[in-house]
Hints:
The chain is mainly β. The chain has a domain at 13-86: Phosphoribosyl-AMP cyclohydrolase (Ubiquitin-like (UB roll)), CATH 3.10.20. 9% of the residues lie in helices and 34% in strands. It is built from one helix and six strands. It has a four-stranded mixed sheet, covered by helices on one side. It has a two-stranded antiparallel ribbon with strand order 3-4. A hairpin with a 6-residue loop joins strand 5 and strand 6 (80-86).
Amino acid sequence: MVIELKYDERGLIPAVVQDATTGEVLMVAWMNAEALRLTQETGEAHFWSRSRRELWHKGATSGNVQRVREIRVDCDADVLLLKVEPAGPACHTGERSCFYRQLDLTGL
């Protein structure tokens, strides 16, 4: 099925990365068309680094690659969900997930 993705004005689309086995959300990153193409061709996650303004092969230097098992698109075609098998921590801090901190729910 061909799906027309909706990239933002910078040519980027957010990608939520989820552990394919546990369902845990590991990270959120950005992809451009080239990063998505490379991900589809290699089976490993590639992203666009907004700070460095360059393509980024997840795990290329750390060894913590993410083997992509499935790519899903949300109902508006403006967010991707990558279900991956991680080879190590997803976060640059060494944590398994970038979502290891929790805010208080005070007042809710």
